[in-house]
Amino acid sequence: MTETIMFHDGNRALQDQFDSRRIADRLEQKLTRRQLTPQDQAFIEGAMFFFLATADAHGQPDCSFKGGAPGFVRVIAPDEIAFPDYDGNGMFKSLGNILANPAVGLLFIDMGEKPRRLRVNGQARVSRDDPLMQRFAGAQLLVRVKTRAIFPNCPRYIVTPGAEEPSKYAPRPDYQPPEPAWKGFDDFKDVVHPRQKTPNGE
Question: Looking at the domain 38-153, which fold is it?
Fold first, then answer.
């Protein structure tokens, strides 16, 4: 099997089990990019938090929450973003992982009335003397991420904070969730895979 910027043999094995390779390839072709768009920049620089996934040299994962004032994450080039490390608990789980394994994944989420998700995967480096640090109040370290793959995720399972009900797309007993609108778009409708039967027959 041949790897792409998005998929490796493990992804392909499950795609083939669920007959979803065609839609996966189309999503990569139509939506995945290596450089950030102006819309991506506005979304990222307006965010007050994101989730950072890292792994150590042995592949042991860690996921952490990073928060700050809007603009604490900045797009400094079409293929590079930067964010500060603030005073914390001193464990340096995420940044220590980056020193051992620079591969990272960032997930930006807007949980408002028009939910949105953006995934940014790339290679990170940590610095204590980066000149750019002067532009980030409170930064004790700076992380730069060179983008490898940028992908806008379907937001259908996101719920508004404080909501008492799950997303209308969330499966539950005796309920058939609607199909998301994107499956009917011209770019995708000819390659959408069928819903799979689950063990409980739904």
Answer: Pnp Oxidase; Chain A (2.30.110)
